[in-house]
Design a protein that fits this description.
Elements: E1 6-12, E2 29-30, E3 33-34, H1 35-44, E4 50-55, H2 59-65, E5 71-75, H3 82-89, E6 98-103, H4 111-119, E7 126-132, E8 141-144, E9 150-154, H5 161-164, E10 168-177, H6 178-187, H7 201-208, E11 213-217, H8 230-250, E12 254-255, E13 261-269, E14 274-275, E15 279-287, E16 292-293, E17 298-304, E18 309-310, E19 315-321, E20 326-327, E21 331-333, E22 337-339, E23 344-347, E24 349-352, E25 355-356, E26 361-364, E27 367-369, E28 371-373, E29 378-379, E30 384-386, E31 396-398, E32 403-404, E33 409-411, E34 414-416, E35 421-422, E36 427-428, E37 437-438
Parallel strand pairs: 1-4, 1-6, 4-5, 7-11, 12-14, 13-15, 14-16, 15-17, 16-18, 17-19, 18-20, 19-21, 19-22, 20-23, 21-24, 22-25, 23-26, 24-27, 25-28, 26-29, 28-31, 29-32, 30-33, 31-34, 32-35, 33-36, 35-37
Antiparallel strand pairs: 2-3, 6-10, 7-10, 8-9
The chain binds uridine-diphosphate-N-acetylglucosamine and calcium ion.
Residues 11-14, 54, 76, 79-82, 84-85, 103-105, 139-140, 153, 155, 169-172, 198-200, 226 line the site of uridine-diphosphate-N-acetylglucosamine (UD1).
């Protein structure tokens, strides 16, 4: 870590008109959380003394999303340019502190890159992050002299034809000492094409004073990509997802197609984990050794045990799933569910707020809610737990080694003892004792000689 007194200033006062949205730009999400929170997290990882966020009109909505006491919120009432924006945050920052300027709409910047940028300040007065762009339209260009030293930055709108040919561009991210920035920014005017106070003018002023400028060229264009509209939002999202997939693959996860995986949270994965295509992982996800997730699964806040197989098209939320289970295809698991070892759940089965112990099976077309189920129990096709009486939810208890036939309704609160068998088609409203066959079934009868009605040919004549 750096032995410096570091103050991070994040510019986020842009209106984001081009997003065509009521949501402030920096609250649009990348990887499932506001783009600004990526920048704040990266800034935090540098262990700065302060993080200031320069915000505009929609400040309150933005502040509400960041429940952290350690952020300084600085209002820029009028959007007069990037230099003016930085000035709103400088009061309160020690003159000797190093200021690092970041952007709320440039979310993929990495801390390693920022460390390099800050290291550049050791023997320079200003350190800029630049990048090479084949298509530099819209960006400020880096003007160097014959010796290759940076002299100034010229904004696209103020650049000559020749300057517009330059492909080294300003990412906007820079570092300098607070006292220097304060002095330079007081001297900048707004006599330019956009009538704004440009932060970039500090570079020319530093050079005028005889200061040396360091330019750290960022090799990964994704890191410095900004977001102004929904197209760029989608581009940055893809870049972020590519990064997540690469991270997982480096840690040994087999990702069938890195372009068809979405991570919107934190994933920890053991060895030999496989993720098939179109998987969405949200919140906190733990995948045990050898776990495999089939195509088109959405999994949120879940732990998946070792060697468990999730077959295609499952939706799993808020669940702990044991080892060696087989789930799906087409299973829905809802919050507060926990499954033991070797549990089997099949197609069109919904489980909610239930505990199912080792070796039990619910293979077809069932709803199990608010239930405790023991081990080695088998639930027949179409079995429904009636847990809701229209007002209250009630619990169901099912013991070990129970066999429940097909199409049974268990009207909660009710319990089925261990070793019980329930006959197919029963509606169970009272507790079923252990070890016995219980059924409720109207007797079957046959009406001999009964005839189906025939169409009356006289009607309508
Ligand atoms: C700026 C740089 C340009 C660089 C480009 C990289 C200046 C003068 N130009 O240009 O050299 O290539 O970024 O994307 O700095 N902001 C405020 N308050 C303001 C103005 C801007 O908070 O008054 C914030 C915006 O929300 C945005 C960022 O600063 O996040 C950049 O502002 P923008 O107007 O987009 O700058 P560019 O013209 O793109
Ligand atoms: Ca501008």
């Amino acid at each position: 870590m750096f032995e410096l007194n570091l103050a991070v200033i994040i510019l986020a006062a842009g209106q984001g008109k081009r997003m065509q949205s009521r949501l402030p730009k920096v609250l649009h999400s990348i990887g499932g959380r506001p783009m600004l929170s990526h920048v704040v997290d990266t800034a935090s990882s540098l262990a700065p003394d302060s993080i200031s966020i320069v915000y505009g009109h929609e400040g309150d909505r933005i502040r509400k999303r960041f429940d952290r006491a350690d952020l300084r919120w600085c209002l820029q009432a009028e959007r007069l340019g990037t230099g003016h924006a930085v000035m709103q945050a400088l009061p309160g920052v020690e003159a000797t502190a190093t200021v690092l300027v970041l952007y709320g709409d440039v979310p993929l910047i990495r801390d390693e890159t920022l460390q390099l940028l800050l290291a550049g300040l050791k023997d320079h007065t200003i350190s800029l992050l630049t990048t090479i762009m084949a298509e530099p339209t819209g960006y400020g260009r880096i003007i160097r002299d014959h010796a290759g030293r940076v002299r100034r930055i010229v904004e696209e709108k103020d650049a000559t034809r020749a300057e517009q040919e330059i492909t080294e561009v300003n990412t906007g991210i820079l570092a300098a000492r607070a006292g220097d920035l304060q002095r330079w920014l007081q001297r900048t005017g707004n006599d330019n094409a956009q009538q704004e106070y440009y932060l970039t003018d500090c570079v020319g002023l530093a050079v005028e004073e005889g200061g040396a400028v360091h330019a750290e060229i960022c090799r990964d264009a994704d890191e410095v990509r900004g977001i102004n509209d929904k197209l760029q939002l989608a581009d940055v999202e893809r870049a972020y997802q590519r990064r997540q997939a690469m991270d997982l693959m480096r840690r040994g996860v087999t990702v069938r197609d890195p372009a068809r995986l979405d991570v919107r949270g934190r994933v920890s994965a053991g060895r030999d984990v496989t993720l098939d295509v179109n998987v969405i992982l949200e919140g906190n996800i733990e995948l045990g050794d050898g776990a495999s997730i089939g195509p088109n699964c959405v999994i949120r806040d879940a732990t998946i045990g070792a060697d468990t197989e999730i077959l295609p098209n499952c939706v799993i939320e808020g669940a702990r799933i044991g080892a060696q289970c087989r789930i799906g295809p087409f299973t829905r698991i809802r919050p507060h569910t926990s499954l033991g070892h070797d549990v089997r759940l099949g197609n069109f089965v919904e489980i909610k707020a239930s505990r199912i112990d080792e070796g039990s099976k619910v293979n077809h077309l069932s709803y199990i809610g608010d239930t405790e189920m023991g081990s080695r129990t088998n639930i027949g096709a179409g079995t429904i737990v009636c847990n809701y009486d229209g007002v209250n939810k009630h619990r169901t208890h099912i013991g070990n080694d129970v066999f429940i036939g097909s199409d049974v309704q268990l009207v909660a609160p009710v319990s089925v003892g261990s070793g019980a068998t329930i006959g197919a088609g029963s509606t169970i409203t009272k507790d079923a004792p252990p070890g016995e066959l219980t059924l409720s079934r109207s007797p079957q009868k046959t009406i001999r000689g009964w005839q189906r009605p025939k169409k009356d040919t006289m009607i309508g004549r």
